[in-house]
TrEMBL record:
Function: Member of the two-component regulatory system NreB/NreC involved in the control of dissimilatory nitrate/nitrite reduction in response to oxygen. NreB functions as a direct oxygen sensor histidine kinase which is autophosphorylated, in the absence of oxygen, probably at the conserved histidine residue, and transfers its phosphate group probably to a conserved aspartate residue of NreC. NreB/NreC activates the expression of the nitrate (narGHJI) and nitrite (nir) reductase operons, as well as the putative nitrate transporter gene narT.
Cofactor: [4Fe-4S] cluster
InterPro entries tied to this protein: HATPase_C_sf (IPR036890), HATPase_dom (IPR003594), His_kinase_dom (IPR005467), Sensor_HK_TwoCompSys (IPR050482), Sig_transdc_His_kin-like_C (IPR004358), Sig_transdc_His_kin_sub3_dim/P (IPR011712), Sig_transdc_His_kinase_ChrS (IPR017205)
Domain Histidine kinase: 341-433
Species, as recorded: Streptomyces subrutilus
UniProt region (Disordered), positions on chain: 235-264
The protein, known as: Oxygen sensor histidine kinase NreB
Length: 436
């Protein structure tokens, strides 16, 4: 198993560097083993032991084997290589233990190496074998059988096992927390991306509603007015051409020519009136385009109230005749409410003009204690609101857009219609506390 406390360097290409605590523990293990080797060699030289040279040589061999394993990446990557390194360390340690009783203390750092480089059950077995070797070495050098000779290595092995198991438990807990933090970071990034996507979709929907309720309706009105002007001019064209290209004859001929000229002049005046209305609608839509792109208040609401804007809307309808009525005590509504009600009225009236073939229509704005209601009723040809085409909004964006505007503000949107029975559109918005 791999662990950042190992005294061997991490595998090449490892994506997780050692933490400061892991580096300190690694250095402490290095210092412990090398310090104990230096202590054993120093005591042998200081006491002028008969086998001092052998002790120093055994310490040097053990230090060389240890350093070679630390510098070998394969020991860290491969359990087999780690086991071979441990076997070499054990052999060198056995040689030191044979010539010096101070080699007993090297067992303690060996416990940690065995527990880290081997699987748990094999590591515990290696610790037990090392403890037995340490006890046998002590008994061979001292010759006295005491409780301390057995308890010291056994307690040291037990402390090492408990320490490593506790550290591994903490390490696993730390890994789980790290994974949870990474998941939370990834989830937060996904939520941020989802919020950005939702914001983009909401802005697209806003632009689609605004374009439908302003530019699209205005362009439809301009088209209808220009068609009316075209029909007027085409109807008067033959009469005007006849009057201009035929010589007047004797008798009562001048009188019909004068009547034709007057009729032609009236037709041109009507056509010019339609063109003037079309130009005015184009200017209004240009102003609307500039404002809704910047998410500003519609021009009809900038310098007046919602009832006044609805009155102007009814008065500006080319046909049918539209009447506006107000019920209840008017009050100032929040801007989103006024914009939504005005846009719904514009969209519904545009549907009346283009599709209903109605003779009359009426827009009613009703203020109540806790809500405001807008009704648009016409006597046109009607339709089946339960049909699939109406539910999808085929042929236009109107009904879905009106419903979306109402539901965004917590309101209720209803459509009542039958073929040949006209149409009634109603939207009710609950008033906010400060407005009610």
């Amino acid at each position: 198993m791999t662990d950042p406390v190992l005294p061997v360097p991490p595998a090449p290409g490892s994506s997780r560097p050692l933490t400061p605590v892991s580096k300190v523990l690694r250095l402490c293990l290095h210092a412990l083993l090398l310090g104990l080797l230096a202590l054993a060699a120093g005591r042998a030289l200081a006491d002028s032991a008969p086998r001092a040279g052998w002790v120093v040589a055994a310490c040097a061999v053990l230090a060389a084997v240890y350093a070679g394993g630390v510098r070998t990446p394969a020991v860290h990557r491969s359990p087999g290589a780690g086991a071979v390194w441990l076997a070499a360390l054990g052999t060198a340690w056995a040689g030191l233990l044979a010539v010096s009783p101070d080699g007993l203390w090297i067992a303690f750092p060996l416990y940690f190496l065995e527990l880290h480089l081997l699987r748990l059950r094999w590591g515990v077995a290696a610790v037990a074998l090392t403890a037995c070797a340490a006890i046998c070495g002590f008994l061979a050098h001292s010759g006295d059988v005491t409780a301390g000779a057995f308890l010291g290595p056994l307690l040291g092995g037990a402390v090492a096992v408990a320490t490593v198991l506790g550290y591994q438990a903490l390490y696993r807990e730390s890994e789980r927390r790290r994974e949870l933090i990474e998941e939370l970071i990834a989830t937060r990034a996904e939520l941020a991306a989802a919020e950005r996507g939702a914001g983009i979709l909401a802005e697209r929907e806003r632009l689609a509603r605004e374009i439908h309720d302003t530019l699209a309706q205005g362009l439809s009105s301009i088209q209808l007015l220009l068609r009316a002007a075209e029909r007027t001019l085409s109807d008067e064209g033959p009469a005007g051409s006849a009057g201009a290209g035929t010589k007047p004859s004797a008798g009562p001929a001048p009188e019909p020519a004068g009547s034709a000229g007057a009729a032609a002049g009236g037709g041109q005046a009507a056509a010019l009136a339609h063109i003037a209305q079309a130009r005015e609608a184009a200017q209004e839509n240009l102003a609307e385009a500039r404002r809704f792109v910047r998410a500003l208040t519609p021009p009809d609401l900038e310098h007046g109230s919602l009832p006044a804007a609805l009155r102007r809307l009814c008065a500006g309808a080319p046909w049918p005749r539209v009447r506006f009525s107000l019920s209840g005590s008017p009050r100032v509504l929040p801007t989103p409410y006024e914009v939504a009600l005005l846009r719904i009225a514009q969209s519904a009236l545009a549907n009346v003009v283009r599709h209903a073939r109605a003779r009359r229509a009426e827009i009613t704005l009703t203020f109540m204690d806790a809500s405001v209601t807008l009704d648009i009723v016409d006597d046109g040809q009607g339709f089946d609101p339960r049909s699939a085409a109406a539910a999808r909004g085929d042929g236009g964006f109107g009904l879905p857009a009106m419903r979306s505007r109402a539901e965004t503000l917590g309101g209720l949107f209803t459509v009542e219609s039958d073929p040949g029975q006209g149409t009634a559109v109603a939207v009710t918005l609950p008033l906010p506390l400060e407005a009610s």
